[in-house]
Design goal:
The structure is a homodimer. Chain A is α+β, with helices and mostly antiparallel strands and about 260 residues long. The first copy, chain A, has two domains: about 5-115 and about 235-260, PSTPO5379-like (3-Layer(aba) Sandwich); about 120-230, PSTPO5379-like domain (PSTPO5379-like fold, 2-Layer Sandwich), CATH 3.30.2040.10. In chain A, about 20% of the residues lie in helices and about 25% in strands. Chain A has six helices and eleven strands. In chain A, strands 1, 2, 3, 4, 5, 10 and 11 form a seven-stranded antiparallel sheet that branches. A four-stranded antiparallel sheet of chain A has the order 6-7-9-8. Chain A is globular. The two termini of chain A are about 30 Å apart. The interface of A and B includes residues 171, 172, 189 and 191 of A. Chains A, B: This is Putative hydro-lyase I4W93_008205. Chains A, B: InterPro entries: D-Glu_cyclase, Putative_hydro-lyase, UPF0317. Chains A, B: Pfam families: D-Glu_cyclase (PF07286).
Chain lengths: ~260, ~260
Amino acid sequence: MSVLSPYQLRQQCRSGAFSGNTSGFAPGFVQANMVILPKQYAADFLQFCHFNPKPCPLLGMAATPGAFTMPSLAKDLDIRSDLPKYRVFQDGQLMAEPTDVRDIWRGDLVTFLIGCSFSFEESLLADGLEIRNISEKVNVPMYRTNIACTPAGVFHGAMVVSMRPMKPADAIRAIQICSRFVQVHGAPVHFGDPAAIGINDINKPDFGDAVSIKPGEVPVFWACGVTPQVAIANAKVDFCITHSPGHMLVTDLANSKLSVL
Amino acid sequence: MSVLSPYQLRQQCRSGAFSGNTSGFAPGFVQANMVILPKQYAADFLQFCHFNPKPCPLLGMAATPGAFTMPSLAKDLDIRSDLPKYRVFQDGQLMAEPTDVRDIWRGDLVTFLIGCSFSFEESLLADGLEIRNISEKVNVPMYRTNIACTPAGVFHGAMVVSMRPMKPADAIRAIQICSRFVQVHGAPVHFGDPAAIGINDINKPDFGDAVSIKPGEVPVFWACGVTPQVAIANAKVDFCITHSPGHMLVTDLANSKLSVL
């Protein structure tokens, strides 16, 4: 399965043959977080991404309300069927987790695609660094912080961060590598003392799973793509569609294209 | 005085009108550590610099033994007189600290110039970061570590590091900025726990002066140009001339020319 091209994988999502986690599929290609909002929220959400580029690095936005293509990121895309699994929210409540949203599509829905840490994790692994959540085969631990995002319209909230423990010398190398990837969260925002950014218990993440932190390692924190989901929940939007966690849009864009240096 | 060009400052050194610390002079221009060794040590020392580029980033080497010019770095240079102060060592002992070494110059002496942290400190300050040793008006604290340099011939020893305390977010920014300056020690080699690199008491530096570390800050450690001086002492060379600490060669090379990105 893992040798499928991004296009082939999207076609399998469309036909219903694939509905799993996309981690490890189509290596080398950008996977994206997806947010679909009614038109009345689109301008505020775009501004929120603009004001908070580290947690909300915008990779793409549909050209018009109702559009379900994104030619610059994926050929022959139907955003309504080409992800393996979706989440549908009404008035902040998770209503369904379907594999296709064609039946509930509306002409006023605006699609946003946001960078995902899979892209930089690949470069860290290629450099020989260990990614603890990968070696322990769990989801990356994520935490709510006391770092306030810049609000925009109805969207507001604290930054969510992901954490990967590293020895300091490896953390320095990771900062160098991630600095190249400004469109996928960029350099870390903090390392060391969790309490300094409002995290009370590093062993109890708010999202994802705890990972072990070994002697001599420090926690390193990256701005996380869960941040916009928190802002959307705070905004109490009446309707929203997102990808299901881990079930990303796999694009035709090579990860290396996101590297600015 | 601080508006002197590098050439004018070197001329004042040559005439004896200036023999002070060069910190803050000729802003924007590269200042260099200097090591002068008899020819029989030159190949080993060059190899030591090659093997240990972070503590010993070689900016220049004289074309031939006896040469006292370095056209690529400074016009009309006489390395024997154009630094404000020198140190002369015989069999590892400091013998004199003259302002001119023309009278003891020999045809077998080979000059090496090594990058200095002044270059990256300028870029950190320009970015709005605080450099504690500058704000407290002392020499940067430096420490012997347990990080072994790669030996070359008679030259060997542990890496010496300089330390600047910073908040983690500032340290991340400093790592980005210093990564551009591979010829002036590059990115830090460590942050956080001093004991992890063999430093027993952060308040008792082996060279330079202690600085205050404020709540929320971590010590950040850079490979330091004192490392080659330790290696030279270990090598028990019979004769050596260096700059006097803080009394650097001021070159005509703009600091920005050392930035690779």
